[in-house]
Design a protein that fits this description.
alpha/beta; seven-stranded mixed sheet; 28% helix
């Protein structure tokens, strides 16, 4: 493919293979990069297919996840967040990525859990973002906790979900002995430099019968749409293939129940899976 750069030797952080593989550089503008002149470059592991951002010591001078919503609207991020939330929740079902997400999760839950049980279940959503997932997913038989690090988004979540426990911070700020029936990481794992940290951290909050749902941009984004697909750019440390995601979960103590690749109504290429503790 012409978008590849010259071959480079890399050691994959997941399968640990040392291999020579082509790389590619994102050439489109990145609205969330602090310095748009810097272009994100990815290496591709020839063994497991993981796509790895070529990070450098000045990475945080280029992009900050905490500035995501402020970068989108520097004048009034609160207004931007509210408008974006309302736009997404009012999308028709056949145009909504979130509806498809909820539908596949509910279908899996219906087969996995005993639906006749009267015991109330609970969900932990890590990296809640605008809150569209929990807002549409939550029902009387479920209680929810959301973890969200961005202060302006935390304020928004408190307004739209007054009966949900919301933590402004990270998983390490949960400070609880509570366990959850379901933990969700919806397009969060790609933002973590060391995904094993958050996956290991989830272990203590899962029962043997609990589920972990993970959703990430699919490496097919490159092969189907090229180097300038939305999956690539500063803020996405890794873009996963099915093999690399399964290997990561195996290494961090999880059993893969199922993984699937799908194309969302928005056109995004998504890889998702359900996992449980070994």
């Amino acid at each position: 493919m012409s978008s590849f750069d010259k071959n480079t030797i890399i050691i994959c952080p997941i399968c640990l293979d040392k291999n020579e593989k082509n790389s590619f550089t994102v050439t489109r503008g990145d609205i969330f990069a602090i310095k748009n002149s810097k272009k994100a470059k990815y290496f591709i592991c020839s063994t497991c297919g993981l796509m790895i951002l070529d990070d450098d010591e000045k990475y945080q001078d280029i992009y900050s996840d905490l500035g995501h919503y402020h970068s989108a609207d520097e004048v009034d991020p609160k207004s931007f967040i509210k408008k974006r939330f309302e736009t997404i929740i009012n999308l028709p079902k056949d145009k909504s990525d979130n509806f498809q997400r909820i539908d596949r999760i509910n279908r899996f839950l219906n087969n996995y859990f005993n639906q006749s049980s009267s015991i109330r279940k609970n969900i932990l959503d890590i990296g809640g973002g605008l809150g569209v997932f929990i807002y549409n997913f939550l029902k009387p038989e479920w209680s929810a906790t959301i973890i969200e690090p961005v202060p302006s988004v935390y304020d928004h979540l408190q307004e739209i979900l007054p009966n949900v426990k919301i933590i402004n911070g990270y998983l390490s700020d949960l400070k609880s002995n509570q366990t959850f029936d379901l933990i969700t990481l919806n397009r969060v794992l790609e933002h973590t430099h060391d995904p094993s940290l958050i996956l290991n951290g989830c272990q203590k909050y899962l029962k043997e019968s609990s589920l972990l749902y993970i959703e990430v941009p699919d490496s097919l984004s490159f092969y189907n749409d090229g180097k300038n697909n939305e999956a690539f750019g500063y803020g996405h440390y890794h873009v996963y293939s099915s093999m690399s995601l399964k290997l990561l979960m195996e290494k961090t103590g999880y059993l893969t129940l199922t993984t699937c690749q799908t194309t969302e109504p928005s056109g995004k290429f998504t890889l998702y899976g359900f996992f449980k503790k070994k």
